[in-house]
Amino acid sequence: MIVRILGEGQYDVADAALDRLNQLDAEVEAAIASGDEAAFTAALGRLLAGVRTVGVPRAGEEYAESDLILPPADAGLEEVREMLADDGLIPG
Amino acid sequence: MSLMKRMSLVFKAKANKVLDKAEDPREVLDYSYQKQLELLTNVRKGVADVATSRKRVELQINQLQQQSDKLQSQAQQAINANREDLAREALTRKSGLTQQIADLQTQHANLQAEEEKLVLAQQRLQAKVEAFRTKKETIKATYTAAEAQTKINDAVAGIGEEMGDIGLAIQRAEDKTQQMQARAGAVDELLASGALDDLTAQPGDDIARQLNELSSQSDVEAELARMKGLSAPAAPQAIGQGEAGAPATDVPATESEPEAQQ
Question: Is residue B107 one of the residues assigned to a domain?
């Protein structure tokens, strides 16, 4: 499957690696729910590092739709909340 | 629902709106190509804007660094002149500048990171736009409107997503640049108002003036000592040499000692 990290690009990720990523994803989700900025930053860092480790960057010239999309590495908790909330995501 | 899934859904919903304008699917190709070219222009402009801000911060860091170096050398001069009070004053002012410089260096690193991201995004988009230009002509020439539909749907979803990603990167870089410019503006005002010059100029000038007085005093003393050294001290030196020469005449005495030991 294709995973996009916003601001970075797309990665091809083997389906077998998805369980581990879901685990990391759940930690990010929990940090957002608790509003713990430090925990969020750490958990997001681990999730993105996980994608980069198991994934292979897509360097192709073809446009492809991602199966999953993740926030930028330097996104703050509040920023991600806003992205999820409404129309903060795509300018214009 | 997980973050990954929510994020994807929200982002895709937005991305799809970017391009759903044209009726004929083949028009979508031309329309989306235009949009990609516009985005390419925007991302280039974004890179230039961030670079301008970065250079401005570099200039400010250099200016503050010069002030700081000046204070450092003044402190050293003051120490050499045994004026610890002046040295302390100069170092105190310097430490204020050091904090400001460190802050600007952090901002500089942030801007540099944003610039690099945008440059990468630009390269990524550039390659895709060029590939797309060829592909869209092929699709238009090969397929009927109905056949083109599925081909185009796939492509358009990916294009919308890529455009959304890059658009977001540009917006984030702009936000950071704006924050930066507000701070850089404050430093510029500070530099222009002479408030920072005052650090070295007004009270600092005081340091400089006092150091100058001290150094001109010590220059005079040094000059005097040198002149005395050329005339007066020359005589005692010659006498000393004469005195030293006297025991040296007892050479046989020193020569006899090793003989006595043997």
Answer: yes
